Automatic annotation (TrEMBL):
The D-glutamate N-acetyltransferase-like N-terminal domain, residue ranges: 39-124
One protein family per Pfam: DUF1611_N
UniProt-recorded name of the protein: EBNA-1 nuclear protein
InterPro entries: DgcN-like, DgcN-like_C, DgcN-like_N, P-loop_NTPase
Organism: Donghicola eburneus
Length: 333
């Protein structure tokens, strides 16, 4: 069990999006976020109090969480001095990077000497089965995106919140490091051996009550050549009854791939739905989630209205406006 509350380590994040792990924890579990630790040159800011290790310890923080998600998921050599100092100050460390804390001999040695714990949340702890595609009871909805990091997790968390407020049965199913750090459980999908990825999602979303919805956190994008594999595992393993299309309209190209343009929502619909219907022929696209954080209020409202008119679906920014429209769309199925 990872001890809370956290000091969120932003390191030398080159932009706000690089700190999406920390941002997610701050937004969805604010009581667990005592403050932030930023190194020189950090371009991300959560709006939390900047703290030294000593100040955070005095404020009650128990675990330093690596809140940066960089390309390749590596522990930067520049971070090591801070991570070692945190262990010596009495913090446990938690990370969702592919580069495991437990694989760094210097961190292991200091942790053992100081009696501290290293938590790697991106390590599968279950022997997942190979997917069998058999129909399961209950209902499932999956968020799919035009790109990576467009708000699929926020959509799922907000939708789960709206469903519960309306008295509907739902469970958020985390499939990535941030979701796992927020909820305390889930499947670290991109760390699962490829043959078992779809099976891990079947395991995560088992038989349930007929009126219960599993809200499956999306990952990657079918259009992103670097990460489309995890998306396909979710599409087939999730056996979704409903898809929610997720989009960030100010992007000029796919994240990390400047030579690839961002597809339209219609292109996403036309690509994702036939693939989802392989596992569940009854699957439907029920709504659109738009990340409007880089738009003013009037611009965002106008854009959402335009999408609703063009696609004939409810369109919301679930973090800005709530996901009630999406919850209503699911309740109507």
């Amino acid at each position: 069990m990872i001890k809370t509350p956290y000091l969120l380590f932003l390191g030398d994040a080159p932009d706000q999006l690089a700190a999406k792990v920390a941002q997610g924890i701050k937004d969805w579990r604010p009581d667990n976020a005592v403050g932030q630790f930023r190194m020189e040159g950090c371009k991300a800011d959560l709006g939390l109090t900047d703290m030294t290790l000593e100040e955070a310890k005095a404020a009650g923080a128990k675990t330093l969480v690596v809140g940066v998600a960089n390309r390749g998921g590596v522990i930067s050599p520049a971070w090591k001095k801070v991570l070692v100092a945190a262990l010596e100050e009495g913090f446990d460390l938690a990370s969702g990077l592919h580069n495991l804390l437990r694989e760094e001999p210097d961190l292991v040695a200091v942790a053992e000497a100081c009696g501290r714990e290293l938590h790697d949340v991106r390590v599968p702890e279950v022997e997942y089965p190979i997917a069998n595609g058999k129909k399961r009871r209950g209902k499932r909805v999956l968020a799919v995106g035009t790109d990576c990091s467009v708000g699929k997790m926020y959509t799922a968390l907000a939708l789960d919140e709206s469903m519960r407020k309306k008295g509907l049965k739902s469970t958020f199913r985390a499939t990535g490091q941030t979701g796992i750090l927020i909820t305390g459980n889930g499947v670290p999908l991109d760390a699962v051996v490829a043959d078992f990825m779809a099976g891990s999602i079947e395991w995560l979303t088992p038989d349930n009550d007929d009126d219960h919805w599993d809200i499956i956190e999306g990952q990657g994008s079918l259009f992103h050549v670097s990460y489309s594999g995890v998306t396909m595992a979710l599409v087939h393993g999730g056996q979704a009854d409903a898809l929610i299309l997720c989009h960030e309209p100010t992007r000029t190209h796919l994240r990390g791939l400047p030579e690839y343009s961002v597809p339209s929502l219609q292109e996403l619909w036309d690509t994702a739905l036939p693939l989802a219907r392989i596992a569940n022929p009854a699957c439907q696209v029920v709504g659109v989630s738009v990340n409007t954080q880089h738009m003013g209020a009037d611009e965002a409202d106008a854009y959402l209205a335009k999408i609703e008119e063009e696609l004939g679906l409810p369109a919301v920014d679930p973090y800005r406006h709530s996901a009630d429209k999406l919850a209503d769309a699911l309740a109507a199925l």
